[in-house]
Structures are given as structure tokens and as C-alpha cells.
Specification:
One of its GO terms (molecular function) is metal ion binding. The chain has 7 helices and 6 strands. With 225 residues, the protein is an alpha/beta fold. The structure holds guanosine-5'-triphosphate (GTP) and magnesium ion (MG).
């Protein structure tokens, strides 16, 4: 298996649809899911690179693993449910701190999923009122997500002028219908790949490969030679 060139991590509260989004994109279906335990990844070849996309558990008891999964991430997809305002708040309160281990130039996408359950989406897409899903007004507006994106830039001490615009990085999706799912992943891949290419051109990271270090030889007297 070829080593991944870059890493993208999905974070967010339990039940917002992280696993469903990833399965919709990678497997082109919307299967029944069970709440994720720990984390799992898919490998996605994109252009001439190999990306790993990590699905993580939103449940509180797995919280401690989050920063481990984010280590060295080139992009983080912060996911919430457009019908639950608290899931957006959790991104700031519980998940943003986990991204401190990500790359310095890590990109952040903010994704409001389950848009198919909102009245506005049904009206825009011209769906009949008799559709199976119960509809309610959306609890989170796109502007709320964009405000969070700008807060994240401040938290990361990034200048808004140097980072991608909020409009480019905030998405509304439905893993159920597939709405905007390809756009989300593929526009992020297209942003991440040039950064990975640049890092590769600049050379390997300044780390030591400890597997190549041999322990010092011991003499019979136990002293080093
Ligand atoms: N209507 C609708 N339901 C969705 C959507 N995405 C996910 N779901 C449902 O929401 C529930 C939770 O989805 P998951 O993908 O397992 O959520 P998760 O974020 O991975 O949850 P954890 O693994 O516990 O962190 C499941 O019953 C899904 O079928 C969507 O876009 N629309
Ligand atoms: Mg899951």
C-alpha cells in the first residue's frame, strides 16, 4: 500500500453524519450506520497524490483520540447538523482545540449536513410536501457557520486576507441525497493537493528516523568504546 501524501480529518459531534458523508462520497451510497468507535480511514487517489480521509468518533468517550487523529492533518472538515444548533456550538467548544496538532497551514471546511430535513431545502429543490422525511425550519443559518469560520481564523492567528474565503469553505450537504457531497470533498482535495506538492518540493520534514539508529555496541566490561 502506498503511503498517504496528505491527511484530511472529519470531526464533529455524534450523529451529525460524518460516517454517512464519507460513505456517500467513497461508496456512492447511504447505508445504515452505527456510531463510530475510535476512527477509520479511506484512501483516495487524487491527481498524482494519495489522500487519507479519516472518520472519527463524535461520542464524548472517544474525545481524547481526536487530537491524535488530527496530527499532521492538511485539512479538517468540521461537521454539524443544520437542524441542531448545539452541534455547531460543539465545534467551537469541544472540537476546535483538537486541531492544534494539525499542520500549521491546515485548511478548515465547515459542513452543515442533513440539509434534506429542512423546509428551505425542500422548497428550493422543488420537492413535494408529501415527501417521507419530516421537515422543520433550519436551526443553523449559513451565516452562523461563516462566523465560526472567521473565529477559527482568529483562533489560529491567520489573516483573513491570506486564507480561503468563508464562502469557499462553508458547505451545506446531505449525505442522504448526495447534495453537495462531491463538491465538498473535491474542492477541498483541489485546495490541499497544491499545498502537499509544495511541501514535497521543499523537502522532507525535519524529523529523525529512529528505526535507522543502532544502539551503541557494548564491550564485555560494559563500557562504551
Ligand atoms: N436525513 C438525513 N439523515 C442523515 C444524514 N446523514 C446522516 N444521517 C443519519 O444520521 C444518523 C447518524 O449518522 P452517522 O453518519 O452515523 O453520524 P456520525 O457523525 O458518524 O456519528 P458518530 O459516529 O457517532 O460520531 C444515521 O441514522 C444516518 O442515517 C443526512 O444527510 N440526512
Ligand atoms: Mg460515525
Amino acid at each position: 500500500m502506498r503511503k498517504p501524501d496528505g491527511k484530511i480529518v472529519l470531526l464533529g459531534d455524534m450523529n451529525v453524519g460524518k460516517t454517512s458523508l464519507l460513505q456517500r462520497y467513497m461508496e456512492r451510497r447511504f447505508p445504515d450506520t452505527v456510531s463510530t468507535v475510535g476512527g477509520a480511514f479511506y484512501l483516495k487517489p487524487w491527481r498524482s497524490f494519495n489522500l487519507s480521509i479519516w472518520d472519527t468518533a463524535g461520542r464524548e468517550q472517544f474525545h481524547g483520540l481526536g487530537s491524535m487523529y488530527c496530527r499532521g492533518a492538511a485539512a479538517v472538515i468540521l461537521t454539524y447538523d443544520v437542524n441542531h444548533l448545539q452541534s455547531l456550538r460543539e465545534l467551537e467548544d469541544r472540537f476546535l482545540g483538537l486541531t492544534d496538532t494539525a499542520n500549521k497551514d491546515c485548511l478548515f471546511a465547515i459542513v452543515g449536513n442533513k440539509v434534506d430535513l429542512s423546509e428551505e431545502h425542500a422548497a428550493q429543490s422543488g420537492e413535494a410536501c408529501s415527501s417521507v422525511s419530516p421537515r422543520a425550519p433550519k436551526q443553523v443559518r449559513p451565516e452562523d457557520a461563516m462566523a465560526l469560520y472567521k473565529k477559527i481564523l482568529r483562533y489560529k492567528m491567520l489573516d483573513e486576507r491570506d486564507a480561503p474565503a468563508a464562502e469557499q469553505m462553508c458547505f451545506e450537504t446531505s449525505a442522504k441525497t448526495g447534495y453537495n457531497v462531491d463538491v465538498l470533498f473535491e474542492s477541498l482535495f483541489d485546495m490541499v493537493v497544491p499545498m502537499i506538492a509544495q511541501q514535497k518540493a521543499e523537502g522532507p520534514p525535519q524529523t529523525v528516523d529512529i528505526s535507522s539508529c543502532k544502539p551503541p555496541k557494548r564491550t564485555t566490561s560494559g563500557c562504551c568504546t
